[in-house]
Amino acid sequence: MSASGSGRSADGERRTPADPSIAHIHPCSACDIRQLSVCNVLDAPELQRLAEIVSTVTLPAHRTVLHEGDPADHLYNVTGGCVKLYKLLPDGRRQITGFLFAGDFLGLALEDRYAYSAEAVSDVTLCRFPRRRLERLLDDLPKLEKRLLGNASNELAAAQDQMILLGRKTAREKISSFLVNLAARAERRGQPADPLALPMSRTDIADYLGLTTETVSRTFTQLKTRRVITLLPGGMVALTDRLAIEDLASGG
Amino acid sequence: MSASGSGRSADGERRTPADPSIAHIHPCSACDIRQLSVCNVLDAPELQRLAEIVSTVTLPAHRTVLHEGDPADHLYNVTGGCVKLYKLLPDGRRQITGFLFAGDFLGLALEDRYAYSAEAVSDVTLCRFPRRRLERLLDDLPKLEKRLLGNASNELAAAQDQMILLGRKTAREKISSFLVNLAARAERRGQPADPLALPMSRTDIADYLGLTTETVSRTFTQLKTRRVITLLPGGMVALTDRLAIEDLASGG
DNA sequence: CGGGACTTTGAGCAAATTCAACCATTGTGG
DNA sequence: CCACAATGGTTGAATTTGCTCAAAGTCCCG
Question: Based on C-alpha coordinates, what's the Rg of chain A?
Fold first, then answer.
């Protein structure tokens, strides 16, 4: 990777040096999404220790963050934008296993290698932690470790919801669930939930829901025709009939 | 197979009292599946502390272990038999999110309530831990907490594998993956992987793979006809052509 | 043995996919 | 500034995979 010094490295990413002497340039204590993330369980001195090993990374849309099978050298915290996680079958079939937004944690794998790939959907900013150093730090910060466990447990619950979606819901129910779920998460981050921003492509949505782009497109128009949603320019959707879409989402 | 020194409670389960004075009757140190489970990171005195809050539970096949939405009062460790986890849609559609065997941990939810239901597939034995007491114990046993985090991280990886299965694999690939996966887990537990025991019904397999029983049955006969597997009496399968089935499983 | 649950097989159907064409938006070079 | 290629999205028609409904076959277990 690139040398430190906050220039633009060969692969186009910018970051702050890990040098603690200038860590105050990006103090975690001033982080405006901290209350969304795992860091919010830490007090000021603990946060300082975290700040000493973190570097901030900015990536443009479509840049790969990490690749399945690569050594899991870093963990990340998304601080802005949208990241997709995915796995591939040998013949290219793809399953997107999650979309991450500000506050979401990325890279938890106590294995040596990443079990999935991650790619920036929009321009994103990330906090990057060297895995070794973070693991060492965890021994001193049981609160953080507990929080990570809670985080993992929540992700497991979300994964189970995604399983029932993939295995048992119809296309219309899948799209509805997807929209309701994104809206709820946007709300939790304090971002507008209606109209809702859809930064990802139809293909991404299809690969997340186990459908094809054509089916995703047809289902959107169907929901539009039924006046459940309204498609707005700029990748926005209005959830016109919130009750109806929530009903569809839960498989009513 | 019954637990010693205890009565049968109202709901038909047998268990040892939590009374530590007789905990030595079921000492964790003599547990023959310990090396498979989260407990194996603990040394003798730590194990003793765990033994003081554990009770052993035996349930017959088809008995519900815990129910989605109920207060999450206990965590479990499966010590024998097979348990299925599942979620339901309002209209009864079911998704089985996992099968658990000896060594597998159950109930990790830092929420107040279980996010899914669990039911015994075969007769099962479980170690049961009161959640509050286990959580308190975790503060003193960082090794165990780390191990739980590692466990959760592995489960997340497995969940992502299941997502690509549900979203992107064909019926034949699903069945093949299922068999290969079960065989690998049986092997890890030191149980015979070929012929492989299938303790769960066709309906359970269908609800796990996002199929119908009919499709599961047809796919089994198809694999049988192609001489990839052999169906044996007593719910056993022989993986006749291991290479072929592994190829099918990975979507080759 | 006999009965009930589970499994397998069959025939027709339907939801979603595939293949193909068309439309909209955007960015580029003449 | 416009033409136009490129990308992504939408729509249509035909196909297919897996589902539904129905019936027959097996396997336990009493």
Answer: 19
For the CA of A217 and the C1' of D15, the distance in angstroms is: 20
Q: The tokens of A10 are what?
A: 């060969």
pLDDT digits (tens, 9 = 90+) for A160-207: 999 999 999 999 999 999 999 999 999 999 999 999 999 999 999 999
**Quick one: which H or E segment has residue B95?**
strand B94-100
Residue B19 Cβ < 7 Å to strand C: no
Strand stretches in chain A, DSSP E: 14-15, 55-59, 64-66, 74-80, 83-88, 94-100, 105-106, 117-120, 124-130, 196-197, 230-232, 236-238
Interface test with A, best of B66, B137, B160 (most A CBs within 10 A): B160
Q: CA neighbours within 13 Å on the CB side: how many for B37?
A: 23
| Backbone dihedral angles phi then psi of residue A4, each to the nearest 5 degrees | -75, 180
pLDDT tens per residue across span B54-70: 999 999 999 999 999 99
The protein residue nearest C19 (Cα–C1') is A214
Q: Which are the contacts of A3, defined by CB distance < 8 A and separation ≥ 6?
A: A9
Contacts of B37 (CB under 8 A, 6+ apart): B31, B77, B79, B102, B103, B104, B105
Half-sphere exposure of A42 (CA within 13 A, CB side): 24
Q: How many CB atoms lie within 10 A of CB A205?
A: 24
Q: Cis omega (within 30 of 0) on the bond before B195? A: yes
